[in-house]
Structures are given as structure tokens and as C-alpha cells.
Amino acid sequence: CANGINAKYVSKKISKTRWRPVSSSSLQQPDIFATGSWDNEDNSISIWSIGENGVSSMDDEFEGDPQLLCEYKHNGDVLDLQFLDQDRIVTASSTGAVTIFRHHHNSQTLSVSKLWERAHHYPCNNAPCTGVVCNSPEIVTVGEDGRIMLFRADQEGVLRTIEKADSSAIHAVTFLRTTEILTVNSIGQLKLWDFRQPGNEPSQILSLTGDRVPLHCVDRHPNQQHIVATGGQDGMLCIWDVRQGNMPISLMEAHTSEMWEVHFHPSNPGHLFSCSEDGSLLHWETSSNTDTPSFLQGGRNTSIISRSAIAPAGGNQSLINAWLTGDSSKGHLETTHMLPSQMLSVNSLDVLGQCLVCGTDGEAIYVNRHVPI
Amino acid sequence: MEEVDVEPTTTPIPGFDSNQKHLGFVWGPGDILVYETIYKASGGSAGGCPFVHEVRKDEDIYSPILRKLFNESHHIFVGLQRIREDLPSKNKKPQFVSISKNYRSVIRACMEELQQVAVYHNDSLGNTLLSLELIWNLCEVLFIDAAPAGSLVLHLLDWVRLHKADVDEKAREVLASESPAEHQAYWDVVISYVLQGRMDEARQVLVKQAALQPAARVMFKLLDNLLMKMPIFNPGETQTLTEFDVKWRHWREEVDHCLQDQSFASNRHLEDICKILVGDEDVLLEYKELLSTWYHFLVTRLLFSHPTVKPTELHYYAQSSMHMFLDTRSVPEPLDSILLAAFEFDIHQVIKDCSIALNNWWFVGHLTDLLDHCKLLQSHNLHFGSNLREFLLLEYASGLFTHHSLWQLAVDYFDHCPEFGRVYLELQIERVPLDTERKALKVIRICEQRQMTEQVRSICKIMAKKALRNNRLGSALSWSIRAKDAAFATLISERFLQDYCAKGTFSDLDLIDNLGPAMLLSDRLTFLGKYREFHRLYGEKRFSDAAKLLLSLMTAKIAPHSFWMTLLTDALPLLEQKEVIFSADQTHELMFCLEELTSGKSVPTPDKPMQDEDIETTKIELLRLALARNLAMAIVKEGTVEI
Lengths: 373, 643
What we know:
The structure holds 2 protein chains of 2 kinds.
Chain A: E1 6-9, E2 13-19, E3 32-38, E4 43-49, E5 67-74, E6 78-83, E7 88-93, E8 98-104, E9 109-116, E10 129-135, E11 138-143, E12 148-152, E13 158-162, E14 170-177, E15 180-185, E16 189-194, E17 204-207, E18 215-220, E19 227-232, E20 236-241, E21 248-253, E22 259-264, E23 271-276, E24 281-286, E25 304-305, E26 316-320, E27 332-337, E28 346-352, E29 355-360, E30 364-368
Parallel strand pairs in A: 21-25
Antiparallel strand pairs in A: 1-30, 2-3, 3-4, 4-5, 6-7, 7-8, 8-9, 10-11, 11-12, 12-13, 14-15, 15-16, 16-17, 18-19, 19-20, 20-21, 22-23, 23-24, 24-27, 26-27, 28-29, 29-30
Chain B: E1 21-27, E2 31-40, E3 52-56, H1 64-81, H2 89-116, H3 124-144, H4 151-162, H5 166-176, H6 186-195, H7 199-212, H8 217-229, H9 241-260, H10 268-278, H11 281-286, H12 288-291, H13 294-305, H14 314-325, H15 334-343, H16 347-357, H17 362-373, H18 388-401, H19 407-415, H20 421-429, H21 437-449, H22 453-469, H23 473-483, H24 486-503, H25 509-512, H26 523-539, H27 543-555, H28 561-575, H29 584-600, H30 610-639
Antiparallel strand pairs in B: 1-2, 2-3
Helix pairs in contact in B: 1-2, 1-17, 2-3, 3-4, 3-15, 4-13, 5-6, 6-7, 6-10, 7-8, 9-10, 13-14, 14-15, 15-16, 16-17, 17-18, 18-19, 18-20, 19-20, 21-22, 22-23, 23-24, 24-26, 26-27, 27-28, 27-29, 28-29, 28-30, 29-30
């Protein structure tokens, strides 16, 4: 195994992996994660454990494989999955349904707690629900039908529907503030929505001036709420400042095909992770001395495309980015491949503390417990 | 047509009596659909059964544990293909051996997992995997590692030891008991160790017995000595094969002497061990149960009679061992004939027999591919144009494609079949069902990476049509852009314009306002974007810009003729403004456009209702009036000179 990472083959293509949140006060590393499968006749969501913490061995090779704790049948592909809290998981299904599952710790079983079956639909048939994001107890979902739905975990009905939010498929959603969300769609637009305002119009639309490439993922900087990263069909990583209007701060070539997920590290935002259809998982880290990473220091001169950040398989390559045409502080950006080469698509990743988990179309899960943060 | 090697197996269809009715069938990609026809076997017809049966050859592909085998071996396969061609074969041998070991460890991992769930599953799968690993291991020893004489016996010994692990279990049991030397399996353990050539372990266990019989101490010491002194060929040392042979013969004579001297006559077991050491076949055959297989018998025989056997001589001993060991009345199992073919170094026969015995192509496909990389397969072309390796891989991959999930693995296999892989992939990839956008994107990516533009187009068209049917114009447009399908983009723009004409407003403004360079994909789309821009400019009260745009839409021929009337009508409010917006020249052009439009209008048709006619004429009259007035004002304005 390369880079201290082992493959666990699970006989199902994995579409989503998510760590169960650990309370911010404890210094524990995460030990439980959930996965969702896709493209199977019977899909399922599963809960896995990576074993006791505190019993860390120096020998990477002999750390245990993830153990399956429990599994539950899921109707349709799991297109998105989020932990609502320690016990509940929300999933978005290709049948258009939004489901809340409850994980019973004592019996190690899963059960369906709530189901909104036709959350997303076309006039005549179902539309896949493509994204879900939670801020307990509120749940926001988006789908290929171009709708945005707002639910509350403890209420039966729909809290709010934004009809005709988008004429194309919405691919992902994230919270910007407690009442604002950001969506990305298949014609390459970022749209800001404010729930305090009535009506079906976004408060802002941002997009690239060049080719409008479909965007697949979006994530917000944990500390600076106006900084957002997106990835799309062309594998480029874009960093945006939503206050600043229409243009991204920087564009970086990252992958050779669709970028499926992008995540800032929740506690060390100088680190960014992205995974792609081309089978690679990149770890971006900045080593400048300032608090803001270099790719955020762009001034009014925006959208300078860096040289390729693609490293050869298994190797590190440091990159000095010449973004800042007037700025003397040179930020330093390093990208590392975290997985062995020749893999099928990496569909999902999640990072918490020092642990990284990802799932692939090769029906394997990879866990790395010593991500260099 | 070639003759059939074995009788084909019959699969009974439940509820069907072949004596009564004829069966109808049709081939599918990996299965057959079978139904009962109305025709009776004896002629005539009668009502039929409403069921359609699906008969599948390969059930294993749906086993969740075997899926891990497919995925892991796919990873190894792809890695193997990427080994550089320019290295000489000599340097690549260790790499190939290591890849072979990888494959085998994957099989073993699956076997272990199957054993854990053996209670619920049919054990036959576990047994099959066991045999597969056995065959693969032998092929690795004989073909890939290609051990020469001397090492050959040692490698074969390892092979046998790996597959006869119950000896250690028994030994543990015996040694853990209170009085090991009196355990009923004690001598079985000792002799099994000797049969496997594990002299050190045998000696350790023998010591227990020696302790119990101090009187026979001399005898035990003698045997211990013989066992210790047995020469084992060491390929690393400088000792040549001949030197080893001489040493070995010396030792054998010594053992023979002991036998002749009746040194062990008092203890039957010790005498048997001595006879085994000398290679006495009759005694070996007495311990059939401990040997349990003819190939174990073969290897033991070689160890004690011909340790310097050459690979080319193997088959003779293999055949004779099999005959000696097996009951002549029993039918040889498929496994036995496969192993025999391997000992005869007949690779093609091994592959052929495996293909017949197994129900999917995984094993023969991967093994043949590896052997082909080792350049061990003669490249004779089969009747249907490709070579053996490619044929098997194509079959395996085609089987994978019938699986709802494993089709993605098959793509890489097709990639590495130079002759027909691409064609197969082109045909298969279009038949993958596309339930979600995400799956369609993955399929398209696969096609794009291989420059299969036709397939990309057709998939995008399917998705675009689906989107259009659900009134998702934005999605439809995004698919047309991906396929660079101008015709479809035109279709979508037409829909927008129709909507506008019907409702008076645009739907999906977020799309049209933000078209960007995609606008250039089709003329109609460009018009749509520009027309919307005109409305925006008008809304922002930038009238002169709006006017210029409107005019250019007509004069640059971007607007379709059918829309000119609407455009001219849109021009009316601009003409009616207090200040002059259209210059004289621009007004002239507008008039020209109006003339062009009206000259095309023919005699009013009888089926056109009078009201429409009236509205049309009124509009044209209004326009003419407005244009004339505007022209007048424009001329005056332009002619005025500020003093």
C-alpha cells in the first residue's frame, strides 16, 4: 500500500463517505464513518468503525481495517449523505427521496426515522435529489428538478420550497451563513439564496466569463465565510470571494476530469482536499507564514491560471504560484497525491482531524489516519 | 465446425416438459430468454405457459465476495499492462512472479472470507477457489518461475506444503496433548512430515518417542542421523547439480544399507520411514490416506527417487504417479487432467480444460494474460481473427458488462485488447442504462477519453431529450453544449422563443441572461441571447443601444424571418418616443426590412380568418406611419445646425 493507506473492498461502488462529527471540545480523532453506495441493484448505507483510539501503533501497516457495524437498504443511488447529528444521517436519493436514518448505538442498527418521498420530482416522474446540507434541525436539499427544498428534521411537511430556482440541474449546496445558502448548477453558475427574503430569485449569481463548465461541488472556508471553493467538469479548482462580484480569485488546474468533491479542512483551512473522476485525490497545502493561504491573497487582479498542479503518480511537487502580480509575498502551494495511481474514480472524500476517508468506483474505501496537517 | 470436447450440460427449466411442448429462446448478452411455445412436440398447438425464464450461465458474478476478487484483480491487471515493454524479459521475471503471487493472494483472501460465511453459503464456491489457487500456483512454479532441475523439486514441495496445511494442525493437536508419543495420530504426524520433506519437524516430533523408549535409543539416533544428513539442493550455493547428485546418491546408499542390515526391523514405523527415504513406492502407496492426492504422491516420489528431475521429464512421472495412485476404475476429475496437462507443459491444454470446467472467464482470462506477458504463449491466431489472450479477455469483459455495476471494470479490459476491444466497447457502452445525470457523465467521460465522439453525441442527445421532456431547458442546453450539438441547441432556442411568443415573457431568465460563449453554438441561440439583451437594454432605458441592437439583429440576418414582425413591433415604442432614437439611416433600413417582409406576403389565403388579416394590416399601417414620422423628425434633427 502506498502512502500508508489501505484499501478495503466492499463489493459496492461507493458514492459518499462522511465522518461522524466529533464534539469540538474533545481532542479525539473520528472513529465512525458512514458510506452510501450507488449503481447497485440494492444500494445501502453503511456505518463503519476504524477501531479504538488511543491504541495507536507506530506501524501503519497493521492498523485495523474498517469494520462494518451496520447496514441498511437504500432505495436508489445515494447521491448525497450528511450527518445531522451524532445519531442521525440524512441521505439524498436518485429516486428524489430525502431520508433521515437513525443509528442506534446500543444495538448497532439503523432504522428509517423520516422519509420525504417525492421531495424532488418532475411533473410526471421522479427527479434525483443531488445534494443535501444540514444545520440541525434544518435540512436543505437540491435536485435535478431545479428546486430547493427546506425541511425541519422534527416536522413532517416542507418548510419552504423555492420553485424554479434553476433551469438546469443543481448539483451541490452548502451553507454560507445560517440563513444563506450557495448552490452550483450544470451551467456553471453559483447562486446565493437568502431565506429571509421571500420569492424565488437568488440574491446573487456568479459565474466564469469564459466557458460555462458545469460545477459539481462547492465548499465554504470554515473561518472566512465569503471564501468559497468550487470544482467542476473540467477538473479546475476555483476559489471565489462572494462579496467581490463576478469573478473567481483564482483558478487552478487540478484534475484531468470531473472534480466530484472539494473540502476545506474544518480546523486547518490552509489545507484543501479534492477528488476526481480521474482517480486521484489531491491534498493542497499552503506553507506561507500568513494566516490566509496564498490562493486567497489575490488582489483585484483575478483569474490568473497557475501552471499545472498535477503531480506524477506518488510524488510531491512544490509549486510557486505567480498569482499576485503586484504582491511581494510569495505564497507557496504544494499538492500531494494521496492515493496510488491507476484507480477508478474517487467519488467522495471527507476529512476531520487527522483522518481522511474516501470511496471509489473500484468498490473500495481508503482510510488514512495520519494526514499531515 | 469443430467437434465438441465434452457433452454439454443440460439445465432443466422448471415447469417445462420437453416431451410435451417446444421451447423457444433468444440470446441475450450474457444469458438466454426461454419460453414455452404453443406448439406441441407431437404437432398441433395448445395454450402456453405465460412465463419467460432467464437462464444465466454465470451466477458467480453476483456473489458479493467474488466481487472483491473482480475488483482487486482488475487493479492488478491494469498494473500489469503498464509494465514497460522495453525492459528485457530476464529483468521482468521477478516482477511477473510477484504479480502472480498478488493474484494468488487475492484468491486466498476471497477463500478465507468465504470460509467465514461457509455456514450460509454453498461450499462449492470455496472448493472451486481452492482448486483455482492450486492450478495457478502450479502454473507459476512451472511456467512463470520456470524453475530448473534441482530447484524444481523444492518449488514443487513448497506447492504441496501450501495446499496440505492440515499437517500442522494435527501436529499442534498431538504436541499439545498430555503424552504426545502415545497420541493415536502421532505416527501420522511424523510420517506426514517425512512425506513432505520436512525433516527438522519430523525429528523434533520423533524425539518424543525416543524419550519413551530408552532401550531403542541407538535405533532412534541412527534414524535421526539419517534424517539430518539428507542433502537438500541449495540453488544459492556454488554446488552444482552433479555434485549434489553425487552427495545424494551417497546418502541414499547409506539409508539402503541400514535397511539391508535390518537396523529398524524391530519398529515397523521406523522401518517404513526408512523405506520412504529410499523411495519405496509400495510403502508410499500404503500411506495413500496421508498423501491424499496423486500429486502429493508425485512430489514425494520425486523428492526421494529423482530430486534432480528436469522439467521435461516431469510428465512421465506425473502420468505414472496418477496411474499408480488412482483407482483405475474411477473417472479422472477435471482438476486432475488440468494438473496433468500442466506437468506436461501443455499450456494451451490447461487453458482449454479450465475454460470448459469453469463457468466464467475470470481465471483463464487473467492467467492467459499473464502468461502472454511472459511470452509463453505461441501467437497462433484463432479462426476469428484475434489471438487467444484477446479472445478470453473479450469474453470476460463482455460478461462483466452484463453486470449492473461491474461494467466499469470491463472498460479497462477492452482498452487492452488491441484488435477488437474498441469495437466491443463502442457497442456495449451505449447500452448502459442511464438513470441519473451522474452516471451519464461518467459514461460520457469514458467515451470522450477514447475519442468515441459518436457515442458521446448519442448519449448527450438522449439526456437532452429527457431534460426537454421534463421542461428542463437549462439542463437540455447544458447537454447540447457538451455534445457540441448545434441542431439541438437550435431546437431549445425555438422552445424559448415559442414560450415568449405565447406568454409574452421569457422563462428561465437565469439561463438566457448568462449564456456566455455558449451562445455561439447555434445561430438561433445567439439570436435568443441578443434578443434578451435588447429587452434588458430597453428595461435599463438605454434606448439608443437597444435600437442599434434591434436593427443589427435584422440586418445581420441573425433573426429568423418569422420573428421579424415581432422585432418590428418591438421597435414601435422606440419610434414613438419624444426624442429621436433611430437615425435617418437606421430608419431607412427599418423601412427596407418592413418592405422585405411585406413583399413576401402573398394574396391572403381563404383559410386565414379575417381578424388576423386585419390585425396584420393594422400593424403594418402603424409601423409605416411611425417610420415615416420618425424619418421626418430624424431628417430635421440631422439637418439642423446649431448656431
